[in-house]
Specification:
Layout lengths: L7 H38 L11 E2 L8 E4 L17 E6 L1 H10 L7 E9 L9 E3 L2 E3 L2 E12 L10 E5 L9 E2 L8 H7 L16
Antiparallel strand pairs: 1-9, 2-3, 3-4, 4-7, 5-6, 7-8
This protein binds heme C.
């Protein structure tokens, strides 16, 4: 039967049914779409450490959008010309881990502490400082690699529940990094960092 030989009322009913089912489909599709958007947002909002098949850590994604905690600075000029890290040490952690820490005072499993190194702009004075319109001091320049720690009590049971990684001490950062032995990193954090191998004493927002 074609639409032309359907009586008037029947045609109206069909039209109503078509419109109604169209509306239902639209509602279902927009609901599905909204759900997948929420799922995508939740995944990106709860970024977890990612590993290669060999177990190396993949350079964390979007770390520069995470919660910024602070920037210890140990310039060369104040360290006999050979600071281990002469740059600003800009430290970030995932927003979801930060939120959980604020509630529980414990670093949750999957926390990543991302320390991005950033050189100071070349010095004008022997102590490494220079003068800018805001005053005399140290000013951030080029990025220069990263050190990263990851909390996973099972995976890193030998190093107090944290894994230590270096993504180059220059740019561009390495795409992946191998786990560092305790003798290179973890021993010092375990000995002197204030809370759970993190130097919370230098990050006011975590120091409670
Ligand atoms: C001799 C001690 C020492 C060693 C060895 C050491 N660190 Fe640290 N690390 C520190 C101190 C002190 C801070 C905080 C102050 C600063 O950045 O200057 C820090 C901060 C960090 C941070 C920022 C988060 C936090 O815990 O405060 C990361 C990430 C980090 N170190 C990774 C590493 C990695 C990876 C290695 C090995 C390649 C390493 N560290 C070796 C002393 C050490």
């Amino acid at each position: 039967m074609t639409a032309t030989n359907v009586p008037g009322r029947g045609r109206a009913l069909i039209a109503t049914a078509v419109i109604a089912s169209g509306l239902i489909l639209t509602a279902v599709f927009s609901e599905l779409h909204a759900k997948s958007e929420v799922a995508a947002r939740e995944t990106s909002e709860r970024y977890m450490p990612e590993y290669t098949a060999d177990g190396d850590l993949i350079l964390p994604k979007n770390f520069e959008k995470w919660v910024y905690l602070g920037s210890p600075l140990t310039p060369n000029a104040l360290n006999g010309g050979k600071a281990n890290f002469p740059e600003f040490h800009n430290v970030y952690m995932q927003p979801w881990a930060y939120e959980e820490y604020q509630k529980t005072n414990v670093f949750p499993e999957g926390t990543i502490m991302f320390k991005e190194l950033q050189l100071t702009i070349p010095a004008q004075f022997p102590d490494g400082s220079r003068t800018e319109p805001s005053g005399r001091g140290y000013f951030p320049g080029k990025l220069n690699g990263a050190d990263v720690t990851v909390k996973d009590s099972k995976r890193y049971a030998d190093t107090g529940g944290w894994g230590y990684y270096n993504f180059h001490h220059y740019e561009p950062k390495a795409p992946t990094a191998k786990l560092k032995p305790k003798a290179e990193c973890g021993y010092c954090h375990a000995a002197s960092a204030k809370k759970d191998e993190v130097w919370t004493q230098f990050y006011d927002r975590l120091d409670h």
